[in-house]
Amino acid sequence: MRKRNKLVLVAALLAATVSVFADDLIFRGTISGEMLDFKGLNETETDAVKKFKQTGVNPYNGNAEVIKKGESLFSTACSGCHGHLAEGKLGPALSDDYWTYPKNATDKGLFETIFGGAEGMMGPQRGRLTQDEMLQIMSWVRSIYQGDPDKAKWLNN
């Protein structure tokens, strides 16, 4: 009887472990630390978004066509606060190696900040931009980086 209970327990632990590794990453708000809510969005997740949610790495980084789209989106959605070249204005600069929130040095962290918002005037972009548009903007921001390459965690993934 004991052997059977041990086998059942091992099987349950193995199933739970496989389940955890098969699921997407957990995304948390930069300020609250609470899990971000992706339910109820009026959008279809693109393949890039699905891949990003599994890896935490933006598949658009380095894609010249998407970077150009990201620049256009940044101009309309972000430049009012962050400046036309992400040099900083009301909001912080985004092209150097100083991050107000250190987690923004990773693609996952930057996405969490954009999607869920930050302190001050940076409200959540959930529902204002699609997740795919956020990834496009992030690819442009990463492409104009002028800081220390060793601090660019997205380059070292």
Automatic annotation (TrEMBL):
Range of residues in the leader sequence: 1-22
GO CC term, one of those recorded: periplasmic space
**Which keywords does this chain's UniProt record carry?**
Heme, Iron, Metal-binding, Signal
PTM statement from Swiss-Prot or TrEMBL: Binds 1 heme c group covalently per subunit.
Which residues hold heme c?
Answer: C78, C81, H82
Q: Name all Cytochrome c domain ranges.
A: 65-145
Q: Which GO terms describe its molecular function?
A: electron transfer activity; heme binding; iron ion binding
Q: What is this protein called?
A: Cytochrome c class I
